[in-house]
Design a protein that fits this description.
- There is one protein chain.
- By secondary structure, this protein is mainly alpha-helical.
- The chain has three helices and two strands, in the order ααββα.
- A two-stranded antiparallel sheet has the order 1-2.
- The longest helix is centred in the last third of the chain and has 44 residues.
- 4% of the residues are buried.
Length: 110
């Protein structure tokens, strides 16, 4: 059991050492996108105190509290991060390595 845990730990360490720069850039990009989404809506809320639920298509702004605004904002950022940015990031990180692996296999066949 300890050998399996050591192998898993070693694999995780190798992965993070290999992709450290890509991971830092990716996290920075996601935080940048989140800020670009959050800042305009926060500024708008502080002036108008209108809340909009972005998870409901066609939701109109209505008067609301800051807690409603925060809950709706967290839901929207989580949706954007998990369902839009995360698959794109995984695809962009893994695709170059998959292409290299396929090239390696094809060159071994020839």
């Amino acid at each position: 059991m300890n050998n399996i845990l050591e192998i898993i730990q070693k694999s995780i360490d190798e992965f993070f050492n290999k992709f450290r720069q890509e991971i830092i850039i990716t996290v920075g990009f996601i935080l940048f996108v989140d800020l670009m989404i959050a800042i305009p809506f926060t500024a708008s809320f502080t002036h108008t105190h209108l809340v909009r639920n972005f998870m409901v298509f066609g939701s109109l702004p209505k008067p609301g509290t800051f807690s409603q605004f925060a809950i709706n904002g967290i839901q929207w950022l989580a949706f954007v991060d998990i369902f839009i940015l995360l698959p794109a990031v995984i695809w962009s990180l893994l695709m170059p390595h998959l292409v290299d692996y396929i090239k390696k296999i094809r060159s071994e066949e020839e």
